[in-house]
Amino acid sequence: MRPIQARISLGAMAHNLRVARSHAGAARVFAVVKANAYGHGLSRARRALAAADGFAVLTLEEAANLRQMGVEQPILLLEGLFGADEIATCTELDLWPVLHHAAQLDWWQRQPPVRPLQVFLKIDSGMHRLGFRLADHAEIVTRVRHLPGVAGVTLMTHFAQADEASGVDWQLQPFLREMDDHALPWSCANSASLLRYPDTQGTWVRPGLMLYGASPFADVSASQLGLQPVMTLQSEIISVQALQAGEGVGYGQLYRAEREMRVGVVACGYADGYPRNAPTGTPVLVNGRLTRTLGRVSMDMLCVDLSECADAGIGSPVVLWGEGLPVESVAAAAHTSSYELLCALAARVPVQESN
Fold first, then answer.
1. Residue-wise pLDDT tens digits, 80-120
2. In terms of CB atoms within 10 Å, which end of the chain has fewer, N or C?
3. pTM above 0.90, yes or no
4. What secondary structure does DSSP assign to 55-103, as a single string?
5. Which residues have a catalytic role annotated?
6. For 206-221, what is each residue's pLDDT tens digit?
7. Which sequence spans correspond to the domains of the chain?
8. Rounded mean pLDDT, 320-333
9. Please, what is the Cα angle at 67 between 64 and 70, to 5 degrees?
10. 231-354: CATH, from 3.10.310.20, 2.40.37.10, 3.40.50.150, 3.30.420.40
């Protein structure tokens, strides 16, 4: 059997939820489990995050799966309705949709739910992705509060730079100032703002990435935040090559040896979810020792430098990211994000759970 596998620690995920709750103050916690729980598996996340006050998903299918698994907490649909026909399903499953554009309000007006539902009203405070314009909030809030079948309204916005030096105040303060007159509950905080900006706690917080043990910040590690890695992608060396000075390795011969050296071939490639654009020098652990990748990542294999791993050979364990090697370190080297790496784990990679 091919040696690659992903180990998912449910205990680490539960620990990270406790960290999120410790930052949330009096706010309730929506555990964001969209995109198959960021690649970790919706069923696993549902079990590990059972203590969450609610779950946030993208699609009706994800929400229906959670209900079938026995989830009784509120479930938030982060992109809301994609058609009027979905209102009936929201009623059936008792889902809380996010309303963020006028067509959704029109659908609701024409086909209200048979019993009242909670809704979240998304206001665009500067990200310019989803949401009603902040300048139009008074009219929109009034309309939504008077829609038939609305049990309650929570105001919502999303931050564009919570993980950067620009921070959140340029969005948060105008949002709070304009929303103050409505005396409604509100939700702003994602992982980055929850960890760094207590003023964003509101009524509900929406942590995602931090639950899976990765830091949202470029300058602060997950361990410094008290987070534990949940996914460890691991494999083994399946071949060892001896290069002479000047010889290259892999497609395009992008890396050429400067001296005589040993190279390990690892059973992991971009078809497993490892980033194809990871350059020479991307960190990797071999036998628990930090080393680097060499050359271009192939579909099913990648090469690593064994110069400082004299005891490594065929069968030696390799950690691509996770325990002992933060996923954000690999993401930074590959010029991508932890989100992308975790979500990209391929279906062909076997998954082993641990507690």
1. 999 999 999 999 999 999 999 999 999 999 999 999 999 99
2. N
3. yes
4. EEESSHHHHHHHHHTT--S-EEETT--SSTTHHHHHHHHTEEEEE-SHH
5. 34, 251
6. 999 999 999 999 999 9
7. 10-214, 231-354
8. 97
9. 155
10. 2.40.37.10
